[in-house]
Amino acid sequence: MADATLLERLARHRALGSAPASEREWLADHGVLRTFAAGEVVVPKGARVTNLHVYLSGHLAVRVDRGAG
């Protein structure tokens, strides 16, 4: 059973809050809760994104090198 606090946070999430409770519970039961430090790289340059990332708080910067230089 998932942590009640995490389920509450998922229920308040802008994108996931309207999903059925059973699906949010599945996500909480099968996911991994991680905390990132300010400035930490979540997916390094050149690496493939292989996981679903759901951000519950904080800010995220996405940088894309399109090779236009």
Which terms summarize this structure?
mainly alpha; single chain; 28% helix; 2 helices; elongated
Number of helices: 2
Question: What is the H-and-E element order?
Answer: HH
Secondary structure category: mainly alpha
Mean pLDDT: 90
User: How much beta, percentage-wise?
Assistant: under 5%
Write up this protein:
It is built from 2 helices and no strands. The chain has one domain (1-69). The protein has helices at residues 4-12, 21-30. The longest helix is centred in the middle third of the chain and has 10 residues, at 21-30. The protein has 69 residues and is mainly alpha-helical. Helix 1 (4-12) packs across helix 2 (21-30). The protein is 28% helix and 0% strand.
Write the layout of secondary structure elements.
Blueprint: H1 4-12, H2 21-30
Helix pairs in contact: 1-2
In short:
The protein has helices spanning 4-12, 21-30.
